[in-house]
Specification:
mainly beta; 1 helix; 10% helix; 54% strand; globular
Amino acid sequence: MFNKKIYFTILASLIISFTFAQQDSDSTLGNHSINLQLGGQVLYSINYEYHFLNKKYINLKTNFGIGINENASDSIPNDRPIYGIQSGLICLIGLKSLALEISPTPTTYFFKSTTFININNWFGLRISPKTINNLYISIGYSPILFTNFTDPTKHYNKIPLGIKVGYVF
């Protein structure tokens, strides 16, 4: 079933979340954001985030994204890309301008008749320039914690490093 990495990641995220949650902060930014992600277990994806908890040193967000893990081959007529649907919880720990980002992200991949699920995680830094509060960039490492993909004849891209560029509104 699930291995120890998954339990440790979820438990660590919850402990960190409740440890650093202190007092409500006055946020001048909106509760919504959208970003473009390159890498991080996808080739590229577009993601929507919603703030549901905003404390002084911690922000919790939900995440939903759609993307492509592998493009279709031009040399194979019936080949199609591998699509992915991401969802998860994002925990930002730190200041508005520089925060640690931890995000367990279950992803469902679709390719013709093959469907599989990965539980990925995102460990990274989110940087938001003080002069332009609405923009941010996140650079991170995204290991696969669990997968049920078992077909040795097919492959998909495993890209552990990634970058996100986003806008808060």
